[in-house]
Amino acid sequence: MAGALLVINLFTVLSFWDDKARAVAGYRRISEANLLLLAVIGGTPGAFLARHLFRHKTRKQPFSTILFVIAVVQLGLLVGWFIAPLTGAL
Questions:
Q1: Cα 79 from Cα 82, distance rounded (Å)
Q2: Is 63 helix (H, G, I), strand (E, B) or coil?
Q3: pTM above 0.85?
């Protein structure tokens, strides 16, 4: 599982880098929907890292808000995953 998350996050960072390079060169871009899909499937840390490293999509709305919501939902799911066994839920 950790290996798969590492791969998806690496791919996410490379996708943001590629989109930034395409934007600078004036070429056709990677859709925001595809970049957000990468976050949904586990690439959220890579998306935030790439935004910081490449200064890409940092002020773009509603992209930034949607990415933040994805991160909050994933964090909530992760906390729930670890807390549920401690409380006897599920």
A1: 5
A2: helix
A3: yes
